Task: inverse folding
């Protein structure tokens, strides 16, 4: 019996606070907004960026501009400001050695996920990497988890052996929408 474990990235495997919040502040400052509330900024880690910028009352077009502004900085500096949580590498290695099939299921663009996992030495433990598309055709957690299940070749009768590990309600909701167990990470 194969076990499958899907992981969120930000806030679950790595602490991206510095990189993500610096880039959000950078994007918002481009439209004259100064955001320095650490709790508010932390709440923006995980959900799609478009949703975050919409909280400021921006329309879809302006949100797209802000996402581009965010990525302008993120792809240069923010992507490298991730810190792997203690024990994560050892955990992934153990799961891999015990025959678990492991996939990433993140709302971060897949290209960025690959860069981070490679940089942090985690890529070799993953069977699949599933992230959002930059054109927003795939950017919800339920859809990304569904893609991970498909790429892993998980059959309907194997869903009881799949676990989604994440730090946000959207990870658990996405797991349940795909009929798999959700495990919350603090």
Result:
């Amino acid at each position: 019996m194969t076990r499958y474990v899907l992981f969120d990235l930000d806030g679950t495997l790595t602490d991206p606070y510095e990189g993500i919040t610096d880039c959000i502040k950078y994007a918002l400052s481009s439209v004259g907004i100064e955001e320095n509330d650490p709790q508010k900024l932390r709440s923006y880690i995980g959900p799609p960026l478009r949703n975050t910028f919409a909280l400021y009352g921006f329309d879809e077009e302006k949100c797209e501009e802000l996402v581009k502004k965010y990525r302008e900085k993120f792809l240069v500096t923010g992507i490298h400001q991730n810190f792997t949580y203690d024990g994560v590498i050892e955990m992934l290695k153990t799961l891999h050695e015990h025959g678990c099939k492991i996939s990433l299921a993140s709302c971060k663009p897949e290209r960025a996920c690959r860069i981070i996992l490679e940089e942090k030495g985690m890529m070799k433990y993953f069977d699949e990497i599933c992230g959002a598309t930059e054109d927003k055709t795939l950017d919800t957690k339920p859809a990304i988890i569904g893609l991970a299940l498909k790429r892993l070749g998980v059959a309907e009768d194997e869903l009881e052996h799949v676990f989604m590990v994440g730090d946000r309600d959207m990870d658990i909701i996405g797991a349940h929408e795909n009929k798999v167990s959700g495990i919350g990470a603090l």
The beta strands are 4-7, 14-15, 83-84, 101-109, 128-132, 162-166, 181-184. The chain has eight helices and seven strands. The CA atoms of residues 32 and 147 lie 38 Å apart. The radius of gyration is 16 Å.
